[in-house]
Specification:
The structure is a homodimer. Chain A is mainly β. Chain A is built from three helices and 17 strands.
Chain lengths: 265, 265
């Protein structure tokens, strides 16, 4: 099994309950990466909705910083009929709630085959001409996360990594998991929260805690590198929205997400 | 009390439980308007989090069509500390779940006063030069909703109302509630789902059932007309995303939302 599949594994522990052993390999800032946690919860939801294999819309509210180690995930199915099923899930460590999730699942192979996407994929030079990810100095040792995947940034858009943020509010990179683990709908729940916060482009180099993140998985991704864009247009009131798009190697827009996060202090 | 405030009122009915009498005045397609229901649930959440008056991030999964008449809303507070509180809520009619919600509330007056919004408000002629809303013929008698507010569309962008959809994927209008009821953070939960589906611009004139909608309220709106934009960039697999922006009379981007909806049949 790949590192990703091992780290997001869940074990049935009774009706509506799963356990997970959260890996320190996904640490970032003051806790574990929000996308890693979302994918782990997503596995428990998939187990609770066996006839609806794929996440379609998954929304998470982050309640407190999650630590490596044991966690329990409670899942309650709210609807399971027709083409979609909906469940709520909560991940806890001891008595402390970490994440609350609402998720609607279905089968991406059963959708209509019409595609009228007007969005266009990001323009990126080939991966070998892009800039590999390195831990941002401001985050220091707290970044085991960056070993979990490869990111390759557009060489013209990494001023933030060199002390010259461009203020664009847009961040774009190639992305793939370690172990040559190919993307699937579940892993896209990680991908939408894997890049650095888009506020890096404004020179705000700290960790930006997510309050809420909702992901829509729109198609089963083709194998190969993904292209990921983060963008923000509304930094205000100490918070910002971050929109993410994930494009696969077949030029399909396979996932969209938006999160509301706090600005770094 | 305005029609909006009366129709969204909730009554305490025990610990963590509220009742509502859902008004037939908000009917659309096969049920009641999703934004109306979100605002009603939002009132119960506000009552459960008295020190956190304003919705910041509210996500809803729509489980079944809601009917006019009595409903119960169960609210469980998951976190209430520091500057934000989070609750989950479910609206039921009898034994049938209608909507599941996760909501993070706070106080919009306590945020930092920085505004670095790079998004720009939609360009609209003055309301008196725009086109008033009329019930789309395809929806027939099932549209009591349109009496609840005024919409004034850009005169160059209403081809869809005249049998000549422009395929733009963008819909923009002025908006205000009836009774001269001024906007507030709670009413924005209605506003983000009040315009016709953006798929009208593609000539798809039917009702588009929402699977999931998440709204971010980013500032307390100034009095007066709001400007509302709906946009879609990814119609595929029988579904589409609809992004909504709400701008107030002071040119502030006060709310953003995204929903995942099914294409009309």
């Amino acid at each position: 099994m790949s590192v990703f599949d091992t780290a997001t594994a869940v074990t049935a522990a009774g009706p509506g309950r799963w356990t997970a052993d959260l890996s320190e390999g996904w640490a970032i800032g003051g806790g574990l990466n929000g996308g890693y946690l979302l994918a782990t919860v997503g596995r428990a939801v998939a187990a609770a909705l066996p006839a609806k294999p794929d996440p379609l819309a998954v929304g998470a509210h982050y309640l407190s910083a999650t630590r490596p180690g044991p966690a329990e995930i409670d899942v309650a199915v709210l609807r399971d009929g027709g083409s979609v099923g909906t469940a709520r899930a909560e991940l806890r460590q001891g008595d402390t709630a970490r994440i609350a999730v609402l998720a609607t699942y279905g089968d991406l192979d059963r959708g209509r085959d019409d595609v009228r996407t007007t969005a266009t994929p990001p323009a990126l030079p080939p991966p070998e001409d892009c800039v590999a990810n390195e831990p941002p100095p401001a985050l220091g040792d707290a970044v085991s996360l960056l070993g979990r995947f490869e990111m390759r940034f557009h060489p013209d858009h990494v001023g933030w990594a060199r002390g010259r943020p461009d203020g664009s509010g847009v961040l774009t990179a190639w992305f793939r998991l370690e172990d040559a683990r190919e993307p699937d709908p579940l892993s896209l729940l990680l991908v939408v929260d894997a890049l650095p916060p888009v506020t890096f482009t404004h020179g705000l180099m700290g960790w930006a805690p997510t309050l809420e993140l909702t992901a829509h998985v729109r198609a089963r991704p083709a194998p190969g590198w993904l292209r990921v864009t983060h963008a923000t247009r509304n930094i205000a009131g100490g918070m910002f929205e971050e929109d993410c798009e994930v494009w696969d190697s077949a030029d399909r827009l396979v996932a969209q997400s938006r999160q509301l996060a706090r600005l770094p202090r």
